[in-house]
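Annex B.
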Amino acid sequence: MAYTRIVENLVLTSTLRLEGPEWDNTLVRNVTIKDVKGDGLMLRNVSNVRIENVTIENVSGTGIKLSKTGSTRNVEIVDSTINGTGRDGINSGEATGVDHVGLKIIGNTISNTGLDGGSSGLLHGIYLQSSEFLVEDNILINSHDGNAISVRSSGIVRGNHIDGAYKSGIAYYADHPAGASNKLVIEENVVVDAGKGGARGDINLLNLPGGSDPVDTIIVRNNTLSGEKGVVIDADYAAKKIATTSTGNVTVSEAEARRIMDQDDQGPAGASPPETVRPSEPSQPDVPNQPDDVQEGRVGLSLSGVGTRTKVEMTRDDVLAETMSAARQKIAAANLDEIDVRITATKNGAAASLGIDSGRLGVASAGETSADASQILGSESMVFDFSKQPGEVVDVTIDLLLQGTAVLTGYRDGVAIGTQTVRGTSVSFSDDEGFDRLVLSAGTSKTGISVTGFEAEYRYDDSYLI
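Parallel beta helix pectate lyase-like protein: predicted structure tokens.
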């Protein structure tokens, strides 16, 4: 979406407050908030706010707080870091007439929360009283007082990695009303070292308080756990005939659970990343009719669906340079540093996010379904930046999962040097003079296209490698 206000590139030592409709359609990115007596960031009475790549550390209150004195709608907290909070890492409150519908918390690292525990009730890594939330692909480390993730209404908790919680890894307590879906799904999470402070399971459906309005349906499936108790469901749920299913959950050793985390995340804090295979020197064949210091090379990216996750392999000169795993999230450009390729997305000329799902890469615009988010549709484009120095890349082949018409435009120094309209599952763009950027759009395709990989041929001299 096109934001009407952008807050970026700041270092703050006081609470950042977004209060009132004048802050609707705001993007907060690349902001550091530290050493605050109080909350790090507070939102109230706002809609369509995205918090991206924000660092919050050493705050006496809550890292990010959605106030229970004013509703919000469609707030996204993505790719951010919260470390060292006196109270909760993220808190969304609910009261009569106040809710925070559509809250998305995706791809964040939240550590060392609840440091002032014991002062007033339990304090959690993520504490959500609001409804219809999505908590996905976050890393939570050392929730010192309460649960790593504590939810009180309907929503989805998926693909999170939890290492260290005083109470439960994930807990549901029905002291706030259910939302419109009336469903809670807890799936594909990994939990290690939970229940330090007492008899709690890795995942707990806690007792139903009197007069509560619990969700109608609860699904707990395909989670990887390491505690003795695993999934604990209070007897109240059967007594009140709440449809509760627990399937596909497995219990492994803590060492195995951490190995799974490392494999998926390429090393969260406190863990050693898996070994990366890199060539000592790029393979550099002789190139006729060029100066001795000019060589040729090749980088590649491939995506494949592995269960509900996507495996990403990066190669340099046909040698594996890096692997990673992702689940229904975007691939951050920083993750492709091993092959020095940056991939970004636009819609109607404004910045958008990259979406990945089941081995497909696309553009994730606001409001899209998971399937749409892994396609390029309509006015969406995917942008490949191949080098910091122009004039190096001479040929790119892009693999597409779906057949359709695609438009490829190459750029050098910000100037378009050629456009091709192509069709098929493998499309290419070439220019002997070299280009530094390629833009891929869906053209006239009504069904959309998805990227599953690419290979770029490039030239470099001894003073520069792409």
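The chain has three helices and 41 strands. The first helix runs from residue 236 to 239. Further annotation is deferred to the next reporting cycle.
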